[in-house]
Design brief:
4 helices, 52% helix, mainly alpha, 116 residues
Length: 116
């Protein structure tokens, strides 16, 4: 029986398939552009799996694909994590579980000249 996948897989998966007595037909992506497309598809796949089963392993899978995409664009894992710390310091994190529902313009805050 044959099953078509056409998806990005981890490096050791072909060997695991062979050990299972099956024959994998694979190719190596040559262009960065195509690799980026497959990484983005993989992010969606991993995110759907995380939504379905929110485990540590699924979270790790998602992070690994995101880090691969970051690396493709020249960003290291450390630089991404530093950006996370900077953004969290400047704008906060998500610990307080705040949901923004509506913003009303011209209410309080900086003087916009409307009260002259």
């Amino acid at each position: 029986m044959e099953k078509v996948y056409n998806k990005l897989i981890r490096d050791k998966i072909p060997d695991i398939i062979v050990e299972d007595g099956r024959l994998p037909i694979c190719r190596t992506i040559k262009s960065d552009r195509e690799f980026e497309v497959f990484l983005k598809r993989k992010i969606i796949e991993e995110l759907e799996e995380l939504f379905e089963t929110p485990t540590r392993e699924e979270m790790a899978d998602l992070f690994e694909v995101i880090y691969a995409l970051a690396n493709l664009h020249g960003f290291s894992k450390d630089s991404i994590e530093a950006a996370m710390v900077e953004k969290s310091s400047a704008r906060g994190g998500f610990n307080d579980r705040i949901v923004l529902e509506v913003v009303i313009d011209g209410f309080g805050g900086e003087d916009d000249g409307a009260h002259e």
